[in-house]
Specification:
The protein is mainly beta and 444 residues long. It has a single domain, classed as YVTN repeat-like/Quinoprotein amine dehydrogenase (Methylamine Dehydrogenase, Chain H), CATH 2.130.10. The chain is 3% helix and 40% strand. A hairpin with a 2-residue loop joins β16 and β17. The longest helix has 12 residues.
Amino acid sequence: MKTLFYISLSLSLSLVAMATPNWPTQRGPHFNGTAEGGMKLPAKFSPTENVVWKAQVPGSSAATPVVWGDYVFVTAADHEKKELHAICLDASTGKPRWSKVVSKGKVHLDDRSDFASPSPVTDGKRVAFFFGTGDLIVFSMDGREEWRKNLIPEGGKYFAFQWTFSTSPILSGGNLIMQILQRDVPFHYGGMSRGPEGATKIPSYLVAFDFATGKQSWKADRPGDAVAESLEAFTSPVLSRTADDGGDLQLLVAGGDALTGHDPKNGKELWRWGTWNPTKIGHWRLVPSPVAGSGVALVCAPKKSPVYAVDMKTGKLLWKSEDPEVSSDVCTPLYHDGHFYVLNGEYKDKRISCIEPRSGKVLWTGALGTRAKIEASPTLGDGKIYFQDHNGQVFVVAADPKKFSLLHQVQFGDRTVRDQRCSLALANNRVFLRSQKTLYCFGK
């Protein structure tokens, strides 16, 4: 029944081709970090083991590779040439299909990230790339530009955002949907103006464009009652139904000290919950996107705070985590087969926990034994959970609710190139791993 539900959900979102298990969005075909079933994925691989191919890319990115059939899409920021790239490779061979320089000039605002951090999205007919510059560009699968827009507020050069803005688009019902959650007034930081100068009120909002034409389908304000940096969100919207065996389809948005559920057909807010910051701390920007399963939406409050579970039908809080090990400042959790998996990339030797959705019961917590930060989100396929740390060390954990089991641990690179933030993509019986300048494809 669960498999049938997942297939029907994917069809309703027009995201998954029945013939091949794709990875069409940042968080996979079901927006929950889990791949399609039926694949055979390697538990062990290395720079020399089970390598199908590897390809060089012209710069860094924190974006997740997106895969559809024989197409794999990645972004890159070339810091030397000061160029932002939209790239398509052959998923079977790694050979270039096409590459476009989408903008030239500044590629980052700070040393922590760059404008190429948002992940692409595709429906197999066209692909969309969004960059922190505000540029949204849609290409045909063969690389022909179909339309583009810039979403920076009129009169501004950058979003009203302290760090480098990032959010990834999604698709629903023929629309490309984006969220822009930013500060409500302009300010200066790092010697630069953020937001339109002279504006008295800058909106945060959701917006949908017809994916084929670029025409705006709807736009909805999405305010927050947070202050200062806490209004900023690096999160991306996700789609989920209110029950695993059906229910209403909702658009979930996290940021501005609130988690909200919306109608994806028009952006109308259906419910709102948000009490993780009652004292209005001003530096609690939000990074992890929400994840949902079993009718429960999970949101991770920042800075070593708890995770919170909200009932998607009522918008009421079900539980919050009490164990300090169960927290996530950056990594988006995943959902699979009636369980949440929460990766804590900040806690001492780093931890991953398996949790029951409706009760909040922690079934197990496992230590990963790395001191490096983890900011990549976990992805799951073929009974295995994959992620990497900042130093390029990759972990494979068994997706077993009964016990923690570390199946594999391998180092990529020499630990001198850090800030490895890309989540792995799982598609077509292949594992796709992005380092700063290399894209690997692994298979059995």
